[in-house]
Amino acid sequence: MFSELKSAAHRAAPTLIQDAVGAAALVVMFVVGLSLPALV
Fold it and tell me: By C-alpha distance, which of 38, 20, 39, 37 is closest to 28?
């Protein structure tokens, strides 16, 4: 079972990096969106 999880994590590594970048972009847009009313 551990070897299956290890191989699945190894196969998904590039997509996990892309998902992390996308999630960080969403967080940045969310923070900027919430900050805009204070700037206007």
Answer: 20
Which residues fall within 8 angstroms of residue 17, CB to CB, at 6 or more apart? none
Query: Would you write out the chain's pLDDT as a tens digit for each of its 40 residues?
Result: 889 988 888 888 889 899 999 999 999 999 999 999 887 7
Place of tokens 């960080």: 24
DSSP state of 19: H
Residue 31: closest CA among 18, 21, 23: 23
Please give the model's pTM, rounded to 2 decimal places. Answer: 0.64
